[in-house]
Specification:
With about 130 residues, this protein is of the alpha+beta class. The protein has one domain: 2-Layer Sandwich (Alpha-Beta Plaits). The protein is built from four helices and four strands, in the order H-E-H-E-E-H-H-E. The longest helix has 20 residues. The relative contact order is 0.26.
Length: about 130
């Protein structure tokens, strides 16, 4: 289960940073945090209620705010029917910052979703060693 997640993360990273970093030296390597979203203890698939729709609207607003900080660079749901629900990828962010930002999400607050946070070291950015 972890191998597909690592492949997905690698593809997301390459797609989001490759064009901006080709042959550009960086003063310090950026730090990344991966946020993995899972079904929480209050999970329900039916969000087509007034409360569910408000929660989803709040969820989208929080994602927009995180993008506006420049720290959230990718986010999205998984398409397979498991307890894995989605992924957030943060750049130049600590685990604590990512946790604080995502803790404002109504789906996290309600227990619909739980989050795991992992610092991620990027070793390859579009170029593979010979």
């Amino acid at each position: 289960m972890r191998k597909p997640i690592l492949v997905l993360l690698s593809l997301l990273l390459v797609a989001s940073t490759y064009a901006a970093t080709i042959d550009k030296p960086e003063a310090a390597p950026p730090s990344y945090v991966v946020g993995i979203r899972r079904k929480g203890p209050a999970w329900t698939a039916d969000m087509n209620t007034p409360e569910g729709r408000r929660m989803i609207q709040g969820h989208i607003e929080i994602l927009r705010k995180m993008v506006a900080t420049g720290k959230l660079i990718a986010a999205g749901p998984f398409g397979d029917p498991t307890d894995l629900r989605g992924l957030l990828l943060f750049r130049n962010c600590t685990v604590e910052e990512a946790r604080r930002m995502a803790s404002e999400d109504p789906v996290v607050k309600s227990g619909q979703i739980t989050m795991e946070y992992h610092p991620w070291s990027v070793l390859l950015k579009g170029k593979f060693p010979e």
